[in-house]
Design a protein that fits this description.
Elements lengths: L7 E5 L4 H12 L3 E6 L2 H15 L5 E4 L5 H15 L4 E4 L14 H29 L2 E6 L14 H19 L4 E8 L5 H6 L6 H7 L3 H13 L6 E4 L9
Parallel strand pairs: 1-2, 1-4, 2-3, 4-5, 5-6, 6-7
């Protein structure tokens, strides 16, 4: 196991849900976290909650649209100026619409891809440059089970997550020469705002709600993988009602 003390991590979509839980467990374990979110007020408030909880100077909240190249370069510049390195990137930021295929517009399709696929591409590109120079780092892409299977009414979200899964595979191969490890984290339905909307089984809402994965569990697994020195390419975390090897 690597000691995470003094590592620098970037977490996108950090103001709530899984991103918040990852930022929390990282901070509690001595990792210097930069929380990235387009929601400036919510992100600042979330970071303040974690600083008060831990008594640390981290996490630091930064506002950015991860699909905007200029904003991505700007936040990396801020982080590098202070930290001189980036050890971990967690691409968690994502958006979702639930619509039948025939009702989904090309504009909606492109917008989902812009945030869920192009955003991680831009974040990975800057992180990969830095990690190559420092000879090491880890990139976690939250692809969900939608990254390798299909769901009804997810005709924009699922293809975008498949694209992110494919990018992760390429980064894992190209990163090997630089000691960079790229890992796809694939949770099933989570007990988050987006997870409740995107969950497929809507007939028994009360029963389904009790079976959703708590984001803190996923965050704990990501912390373990952050410390782990072996090679793990993909982790699938399924809901209780999800079938094995989905």
């Amino acid at each position: 196991m690597q000691n995470p003390e003094k590592q620098v991590a970037i977490v996108t979509g950090a103001s709530r849900g899984l991103g918040f839980e990852i930022s929390k467990v990282y901070t509690q374990n001595g990792i210097n976290v930069y929380m990235i979110d387009i929601n400036e007020t919510g992100n600042s408030d979330a970071a303040e909650v974690l600083r008060e909880m831990t008594g640390k100077d981290y996490p630091v909240a930064l506002k950015a649209d991860v699909s905007c190249p200029e904003e991505v370069k700007k936040i990396y510049g801020i982080i590098l100026k202070k930290e001189k390195r980036v050890d971990v990137l967690v691409n968690n930021a994502a958006i979702f619409i639930r619509k039948p295929f025939l009702d989904t517009t090309i504009e909606e399709y492109r917008h989902i891809f812009k945030i869920n696929s192009e955003g991680p591409f831009l974040m990975c590109k800057e992180a990969f440059k830095i990690m190559s120079q420092q000879n090491g780092g880890k990139i976690f892409n939250i692809t969900s089970t939608g990254g390798f299977t299909g769901y009804a009414d997810h005709s924009a979200y699922v293809p975008a997550k498949h694209a992110l899964q494919g990018l992760t595979k390429v980064l894992a191969i190209e990163g090997k020469a630089h000691n960079i490890r790229a890992i796809a984290v694939c949770p099933g339905g989570m007990n988050t705002e987006m997870g409740k909307i995107s969950a497929v089984t809507l007939k028994k809402d009360d029963e389904r709600k009790n079976n959703l994965i708590e984001p803190a569990l996923v965050a704990d697994n990501i912390l373990y993988l952050t410390r782990y020195e072996g090679y793990i390419d993909k982790v699938v975390i399924r809901t209780e009602h999800g079938g094995p090897f989905i």
